[in-house]
Amino acid sequence: MGRDYTAFVHITSADGKTKFQDDHQPPGSAGAKPGSAEAKPGGTSAWSGRVEYERTIAVPTDAPLGDYKIVAGLYNPKGGARQKIKTGEGATDAGEDACQIGVLKLTADAPLPKLGPPTLNLGGYRVTFDEDFSDKELSVSAWGPGTRWIAHTPYAGDFGDARFANPTKEFPFTIDGGILRIEAKKVGDRWQSGLLASVDPKGNGFSQKYGYFEMRAKFPGGLGTWPAFWLLGVPKLLDKSKTQIEIDVVEHYGVHPNSLHTVVHLWYPDKKHKGDAGVFIIGGMAEDFHRYGVMVEPDFISFYFDGVLLRKVPTPEEAKVPLYLLVDLALGSGWPIDKTPNPSYMYVDYVRAYAK
Length: 356
Hints:
2 domains, 356 residues, six-stranded antiparallel beta sheet, Jelly Rolls, mainly beta, 24 strands
């Protein structure tokens, strides 16, 4: 097509107002299969002929039931305008350089999709990091050194609508029966919560190049909650000119209780960003403990839920470095927190890493 466009997908009500949306970078090649080397984000410049791919859109839990229009098109992020398009068979002109490609029916009894059988095989791997929270007290300090965890991102960057607190004896981390509880609560008029990182600002602590990384956890219910398990590259801590890899093994938004989000981010020194996201509809993440894992190999990054393969993406060069672990209970991410339960709790059974 000559340039890279962003695809916009708007879910609109009968009056034409957008109720929720899924703007994204499309895959880069016509007919590319998910997980193939050709299925790269941000690549409409390589499109030719027929192009077909799939997206999963998470519906907010408070969206009213009924019929919605699915409106889509292409947007030029550099020019700041939509690309003029022609509608083909099965689509209708929706005006404003967009087309309606279907109707979404929201019903209360829509079934959740079924996952395939578990395929994770850790034969030939050994445990290299095992935090099972069996000690009565968590080995954590605000910034280290000398503890297994620190309670902030080692690059000193908060995010979301809750400040990550320095740990005390009772907040935000407590251990009971081998289960870590991370608490988010209001202190005065400001939310505070907890984050754990496995290295300190100098990169001391646990990190590992390649391998399998897993957390078993139960997420909080309620609007505005945003728990996550993720990996970052150590080199960026020591050299700010490096591009940072971020692998979000799982992000869970309370507004989308049945949605499991996985993302591979590249954060460039010039503030540019590229992300490859996948959303999966899975129930029960706030009702019971589940395993969230990622296998990082030289060729592919593979995401797992309870041992079931969700997706594979090509491994970028920036991911072929020592990676450290982060676990947190954040709030917000653009979603309102006025109805977030106070307090909210995330429970973690273990965090582990494996290597060949």
